[in-house]
Amino acid sequence: MGTLKRIDVNHLKVRCSECNLRELCFPHGMNVEDISSMDAVVKQFKPIHKNDYLYRRGDAAVAIYAVRTGCIKTMTESTNGDEQIVGFHMAGELLGLDGFADGIHACNAVALETSSVCKLPIDQLEALSQKLPGLQNQMRRIVGKEVSNDHKLLLLLGKMTSEERLASFLLSVSSRMLERNWKEDEFNLSMARQDIANYLGVAVETVSRLFATFQKQGIINVDRRHITILQMEALKAMVGDCVSTNKKPGCVG
Amino acid sequence: MGTLKRIDVNHLKVRCSECNLRELCFPHGMNVEDISSMDAVVKQFKPIHKNDYLYRRGDAAVAIYAVRTGCIKTMTESTNGDEQIVGFHMAGELLGLDGFADGIHACNAVALETSSVCKLPIDQLEALSQKLPGLQNQMRRIVGKEVSNDHKLLLLLGKMTSEERLASFLLSVSSRMLERNWKEDEFNLSMARQDIANYLGVAVETVSRLFATFQKQGIINVDRRHITILQMEALKAMVGDCVSTNKKPGCVG
DNA sequence: AAATCGACATGACATAAGTCAAGTTCCAAA
DNA sequence: TTTGGAACTTGACTTATGTCATGTCGATTT
Q1: What is the value of pTM for the model shown?
Q2: What is the pLDDT of residue A211?
Q3: Where in chain A is the domain with CATH 1.10.10.10?
Q4: Where in chain B is the domain with CATH 2.60.120.10?
Q5: For strand D, which nucleotides have at least one atom less than 7 Å from a protein CB?
Q6: CA-CA distances (angstroms) from residue B235 to B163, B167, B178?
Q7: Separation of CA A141 and C1' D22 in angstroms?
């Protein structure tokens, strides 16, 4: 194809300071100088294809990763082989904290579609944070976000009906689409029904049926993985959004 | 009682270096000098009584806490008031990471019985970690442990039957008893059936029935909150311990 | 000792969601 | 273009677990 300059994608320079994901990603909330010093730490990582592993349970945990494009799922595995998806990571979102306990990844990380990530080596992050006090705050925020996400999922799995779970899932995807300046009411899911079911702790058939029901109720439109949300408020009401529904007196929302 | 010296328990000096919980607690794995420098950071905290809050959702998160005696539960709360217990924290275990995301606690922390804790102010931990590189590692390990615990609970809530959940819970308590050099097969639960049920994502009645069933099967003995484990292996088999049961060929354990 | 109350247990019954078994539909390989 | 198969849907049926109602136990107060 003509005389295009060859680019070695494994050694691309990436700069947080020039990245359009920076407000969603690791640097969110950091000051400009600190973000610039991140540039030396962040490494581009080769693209990974659908079903490829970014890391596996048991691998040495040497870095945390930021999704640039695509979507990656992380899942825990029990001794008897059951898997539970604990997160779907979209552009700008971080993964890899599951290796912090003992330096060994406790999760598998698998691409749902062709994806690219930035690699942030832990030792370099640590070295840098000795110089930048702000970076420690940042790490704390990131860790806190992970814990908070896990807790939301615990609440979902522990207390919600399957209907509430799917509504909650759709709202989560929707709000993350919005954060990325994509449409909040029309998007393509990266994950298979099976993945959604696993994540939500229900059977695939239940997910199928609920999609059908929601569609019948005119709340969403489903065309395979293409979702259109027609009644956002109806979804919010399902998960118990006390602001819009005023279900509970005294709820401060 | 005679001429006992008065002790103001709110200002007791506490030293990690002299604490018999240090191998279970924050200092686990740290070197002796680093542990000594922790002494300046750790504050004793007044004892809290049963049903008292150590902190509430919405409180400013200024510290992490280490349980000295007793047991504390942490729970998330949904917008519509549902609560999910995300952890029971025994002596030597840490809590408070739920405030890392934005400096505001996302959980409630409530004592299950009269308990005492050490307070580790975040700003002081941070200042100290600028001097001690080992402390950053330590924080990472602690965070990793929290994430790993949450993931275990996600697996439990997402994939296990109620029987597996209770077996898993009993084994978890048992192994933590053992860590503390208490009996692993005979202990008192600090939590009510209701708390266990909430934590495991099942109804109280289910917990009651399962306790009864396990007892009928001769696996455990139950006398109110006093539990005796009679067949540890049977419990392990329930949660799919592939080492002792060899259920699955090719399982590496 | 009686009364009270919360924690826990147990039986009867209801139901949300799982399982099983066909079916589509769509995409990708031949 | 055909073929194969994975992903998904839908219906019929089953079941684990929740809900409701009642009863017991044990600690604490009167």
Answers
A1: 0.92
A2: 98
A3: 160-245
A4: 9-144
A5: 7-12, 16-21, 26
A6: 10, 5, 16
A7: 50
User: Inter-chain contact A79–B129, Cβ cutoff 8 Å?
Assistant: no
Query: From the CB of residue B229, how many other CB atoms can be counted at a distance below 10 Å?
Result: 22
Verify whether the Cβ–Cβ distance A146 to B151 is below 8 Å. no
Tell me the CA–C1' distance in angstroms for B130 and C4: 59
Closest alpha carbon within chain B to A82:
B159
Token representation of residue B23: 């191998």
Angle at which helix B204-216 crosses helix B162-179, to 10 degrees, equals 70
Cβ contact (<8 Å) for A147 and B152?
Answer: no
- Summarised one tens digit per residue, pLDDT across range A45-63 is 778 999 999 999 999 999 9
> Does pLDDT of B99 surpass 50?
yes
CATH architecture, domain B160-245: Orthogonal Bundle (1.10)
Q: Which residue of A has its CA nearest to B133?
A: A130
CA distance A103 to A117: 20
CA closest to B158 among chain A residues = A201
CA B155 / C1′ C17 distance in Å: 18
The backbone torsions φ and ψ at residue A227, rounded to the nearest 5 degrees and listed phi first, read -110, 135
In A, which residues are within 8 Å of B243 by CB distance? 79
Alpha carbon separation from B81 to A155, A252, B69, B76 (Å, rounded):
11, 11, 29, 10
What is the third-level CATH fold of B9-144?
A: Jelly Rolls (2.60.120)
CA distance linking residue A107 with residue B169, whole number of Å: 21
A85, A77 contact by CB (below 8 A): no
